[in-house]
Structure formats: C-alpha cells, structure tokens
Amino acid sequence: MYEQLSDDELFAEVVRRRATDEPFGGPLGTLVQRWNRPARYVISKIQASYGRGSPADADELFQDAVGKFLDRGLDQFRGVSQQMPGRSASPKTFFLRIVKHVAIDFYRRHREELAAPPSDPDDAMEEPPSETARAVELGRRREERAEAQELYWAAFARLQQEHPKEASAWELYHHEDVEDHEECARRLNISVVNSYKRVSRAQAYLKLYLLDLQRESPGEEA
Amino acid sequence: MNTAAMSRYTARRQQLTAGSSSPGVVLEVAGDLLRRSRQVGTEGVEDALRGLGRREVETWLQAQKPQALQPVLLRAAEEAVEVVLDGGEEAEMWRLSAMEGLAARDRAASAVVALVAWEALHGPLDGEAARNLERFVEGLGKLDSALRPRARWFIPLNPQRRQERDLLEPAEQDKAWWFSARAGCDDLVATWTGGAQSSTPHLQGCADCRADIADAAPVDSPPRRHLTEDDLWRFDMGLMSEDERSRVDAHTARCGECAQAVLALGEGDDAIEDALEMEEGDAGLSPAARTSRAPVSQRPLAARHPEHREVLEERREFRVVLVRERQRVRLLVQPLAGRTVTAAVFLSPGRPSLKPSNGPEGLSFDLTTASSTGARSAHLSVQAGNETMEKDFAF
Ligand SMILES: [Zn+2]
Ligand SMILES: [Zn+2]
C-alpha cells in the first residue's frame, strides 16, 4: 500500500504517525527496505576502509542505524535540513549518513580487539602454552592500561571539581592537543603567564590526586 | 636547635598550672610534654594529671569526635601544597595554617598518651568511659590509615615537620606520621610541576619516591581526548566552530585512530554518492534529473579537507583534474559545454581500464589503491564529441 508513495511522502507519514502516537512500522519498514541496498553498500565501503567486517555485522549495523534514525534522526534531520539546506536534503541521504556513522563508530569501538594479532593455527598447534600465555599477558596489560586510564580520568574529574580553572587549562593544553601557551591564553582569555601557571598547578594536583586514588584502589597490594 | 618549636612547648607548660585550663587542654599539654620528655621535660605533668577528676575526664571523652580531624587534615594537605604552588607572599600564611592542621592531629595523640598516664595514676576507666576511650583511639586509627598514605601532600612543610619530629621521643616519632612520614622526601616536590626531572640521590634511593614518580607518570604524558561519536557527527555535518575544527585537525595529525575515522567519513561520503548514483542509474534517471543532491562544493567533505586540485588538461569539451585529498587521489574528467565524455585510465598496457564512477562533477577514477600499491603513473584516454586525447600522467 505504500509502494506508490515517494520517500518524502513516506517519511512525512512516519513523522506524522510518530507525533500522534500511531503505529508507524508500516511506512517505516517500506522506507528502510528501499534504502537497504544503498545502506549495505555504504556499510561495505566502511568495512573496506577498516579492513574488516562481516555480513553479520552489516545486519546488525543496519538495524542500529534504523534505531538511531528513529531515536534521534527524525528531529535532527529537520534541524539539519533547515540549517543547511542541501547538505542532507533527502531523508534517504540523511539515513545513509547515519548508516555511515553507525558503521564507523562500530569499527572504531572494535578496533583494538579485532586488531589483536591473528593467531596462526600452525603456531598454535606447535606452541599452545606460549600462545595462551601471550594472549593472557596481552589481556592483562590491556586491563591494566584501562584501569590506569580510568584512574587518570577520575583524577581529572576531581581536578575539575576542585580546581576548575586549572582543569580547563589542562584540558585545552593536553587533552585537546593545543600544547601552546599563547593559544591556550587566547582561548581562555587569560595571560600567557597565567596559562603556564594553571597548567603547572594542574599537573601537580593531578599527580597528587592520581597517587591518592592509586593507593586507595584495592588490588594495589597485589 | 629547634628553639622556636621547643619554646612553644615549654610555654604550654604554664597551661598545666593555670587553674583555668579545661580538662582537654590539660590532657593535651600533659601528653605533649610526655611525648617530648627528653627534649622539654615533664615537670608539672604528674601533678596536673592527679588534679584531673574522673568525671572531668569522662565528660571530655564523651565529647570527642576524631573523624572531625579528617577535614582539618585534608585542608592542611591542600594548604601545604599551596606553599609550593602559590610561591608568592601567601606561602608563609599557607605554611602556618597547614602546620596548625598537623598540630591538631598531634594534640589528639598527646591526649591519648596523657589518658594512659592518667589511668596509671587513678586506675582504669570503666563502663561507658572505657568504651569511649576505645572508640576515640579507634577513630584516630581509622583516620590515620586513610590519611597516612597521603603524607606526600605535607612534604612542602618538611623543614618544620622535621623540627617537630625531632622533638618527639624516638618511640613516638614513627607513630606521628603527620610529622615524620616522607619527612626526607623534599626532592619529590620538584617532580610535581617539573617536566624533565633531574633525578637526585634521594629520588633514586627512596622507594616511596620512586613509586610515586612511576605511578604519577601518566600525568607526564596525558592521554588525549579522542574524537567521540558526537564529535564525528558534528564535524561531518559542519556543525563545529572554528576552534573545534582546528582541534580536530590538531588531534588527527597525531592520532592515527581518529585520523582513520575522519578518513572513513570521507570514504563513506563517496560511498553514499556512489550508492545514490547507482540507484538513480537503476531508476533510469539522467544526471540532470537529480534534484535532491547538493553540488559537490557544498558537501562538508569539500569544506573540511582542503583538496588539492591540479588541472592536467583543459580543452574546449572537457577538463582533466587530479584531486588529492589526504591519502586519497582521484582523476576527474569533467565534461564542459554539456558534452558527453567517455574516458579510460590504464595503469599498465594491456590491462583493463579502471572503473570510473559517474559523479556530479564528471567521471571519477579512484587512484588511491593504485597509489598505495606503488603505481605512480597511468595512461588516460578521453573522447568527447570529435575530440580525442591520449595522455600519460603522473600522480
Ligand atoms: Zn623519598
Ligand atoms: Zn584520537
């Protein structure tokens, strides 16, 4: 029954029904079914870009993208098309953009685990203990790194709470890669001397907070 | 030696004999002197403790809240660090205030010692009073186990802390961590704000300092904030401010992971464009019928990486442009004057032409893969109307 409607008409129907709490599965299903093929093409290109991925991923990503399109996309699409006419003028292009982002986010998140060195089956046969030990070691180090990162960000959160000015200078200088006191001073609207001072104060407090957190955290004794 | 600190304690002795002193003050002063007996003597202590009645001691104990010392010590820690971080005229004020915080903890220790001496003279406390004493001692123990690991905060007060430590009886010194823990670690302070640290014999030899330096190392090379999903979205949609965009550039210049994501955004755009064209092709639409598409120059991709375009050839009927954008390189054959143009690109003689994609700007040959596999030149053949062109080009 929806086949004769254009994308724009179907889309308008989804938006209308959603706003009035009517079921919109029918028109939405037709719409995304039409976009299935281009969406899979886009997914395949992102997969190629990351050098990984499977058809199973593609199914999952497509579903995710439909969800995102519903959750945020409908409102954002209107916002974007008003702000920047032409950029994502059609709902289809907008949907494909969401597909693209969903796929990129997915492969970014899975980058590290997938990037683990592929185990050669022959090696594994010959030297199972070392392979296992290596995997365990890798996992342990990854965990430690994650924990260290977590503590660092906890220390930074404390700095933000207790010394917000120092924290914003540090954030800009280090986390946001500015690494230049003149630029830092310009952005924060403070003197260059002050920028030096704030970053150096931040450094001292961060170290002290981090050490406090490390000594508190259980497992440190191990 | 230590004259200033010493005279402070000898001056306190007067409070023992002044009849107006509260039981708490008597206990604290008595304990202060007992814990420093060899340096300042215990004259008057026993008389004062004998004069302290059981009821007075019990009432005082009931009112004690050792956990109230926690915020006092935490503030003192912060003030102690300000002594070195502030460094200005305020430094002396921070130092005095921080030392006062440590002295508060020390007085509680003195009270405990005095209570033990009091019990030896008057017989042990019992019932609720005994339990209150136990709670008081326990509370101080808890406080210490929470704060002793943070003794490094007090290092900036070390000259004063060492004076105080040295006045204490040897058996008391180690217990009084607020004066004695990390009291020799002065060199560590320079590592808090310093970049490249010149190591000192102390820093090399002290296990605590070595551990601190190693464990604080993440602050010396802080992690960068990676681009979030939302960052990528706003970047892609052209919603970022100029400062935000320059942050993205600065970050991707150093972070391979995020650079890859930004590259993938561009590749995704090409894919979207291709996908739309394939669909339109299927629907039998001519390029002119495309109305919903923005011209390429308005696409955010074009805005975010300044492309480098090199015109290789310009004829009346068509133009040949080499487009570089980050790691990508493609050859565009643009029809002019509404002509239909056909073109082929051969990487090596006898091999089939690269497959072009037909975009709004004309025919596009992606040379990225060829370039990444080492190819540096190719042969181009173009036909437009009556005009034909054969050309070798480098990329
Ligand atoms: Zn040390
Ligand atoms: Zn990054």
Descriptive notes:
The complex is a heterodimer of chains A (222) and B (395). Among the domains of chain A are: 35-115, no CATH class; 143-216, Arc Repressor Mutant, subunit A (Orthogonal Bundle). Helix content of chain A is 80%, strand content 0%. Chain A is mainly α and 222 residues long. The model of chain A is unreliable at 114-128 (pLDDT under 50). Chain A starts with 6 loop residues before the first helix and ends in a 6-residue tail after the last helix. Chain A contains 10 helices and no strands. Chain B has 395 residues and is an alpha+beta fold. Chain B folds into 4 domains: 3-184, no CATH class; 190-219, no CATH class; 226-303, no CATH class; 306-395, Sandwich (Immunoglobulin-like), CATH 2.60.40. In chain B, 55% of the residues lie in helices and 13% in strands. Chain B is built from 20 helices and 8 strands. Chain B has helices at residues 3-17, 23-34, 37-40, 45-50, 54-62, 69-86, 91-122, 127-147, 158-167, 170-173, 177-180, 188-193, 201-205, 207-215, 217-220, 229-236, 242-254, 256-282, 300-304, 368-372; strands at residues 308-314, 318-325, 328-335, 341-346, 357-359, 362-366, 377-384, 387-394. In chain B, the strands form 2 sheets. Chain B has a 5-stranded antiparallel sheet. A 3-stranded antiparallel sheet of chain B has the order 4-7-8, with no helix packed on it. In chain B, strand 2 (318-325) and strand 3 (328-335) form a beta hairpin. The structure holds zinc ion (ZN) (2 copies).
Give a quick summary of the entry:
The complex is a heterodimer of chains A (222) and B (395). Chain A is mainly α and 222 residues long.
Percentage of residues in helical conformation of chain A: over 70%
Count of alpha and pi helical runs of chain A: 10
Mean pLDDT of chain B: 86
Query: What is the alpha-carbon Rg of chain B in Å?
Result: 40 Å
Tell me which protein chains meet in the greatest interface and how many residues each side has.
Answer: A-B, 57 and 54 residues
The poorly predicted ranges of chain B are: 285-304
Question: Approximately how much helix is present in the residues of chain B?
Answer: 40-55%
Q: Outline of chain A, from the CA principal axes? A: extended
| Biggest beta sheet attributes of chain A | none
The overall strand count of chain B is 8
Count of separate structural domains of chain B: 4
Q: State the order of secondary-structure elements of chain A, H for helix, E for strand.
A: HHHHHHHHHH
Unreliable stretches covering 5 or more consecutive residues of chain A: 114-128
Structural class by SSE content of chain A: mainly alpha
How many strands, what sense, and barrel or not for the largest sheet of chain B?
5 strands, antiparallel
Series of H and E elements of chain B: HHHHHHHHHHHHHHHHHHHEEEEEEHEE
Kindly, what is the distance between the CA atoms of the first and last residues of chain B, rounded to a whole number of angstroms? 81 Å
Query: How much is the average pLDDT of chain A?
Result: 82
Total of DSSP H or I helical runs spanning 4+ residues of chain B: 20
User: In oligomeric terms, what are we looking at?
Assistant: heterodimer
Query: Beta-strand level of the residues of chain B, as a percent range?
Result: 5-15%
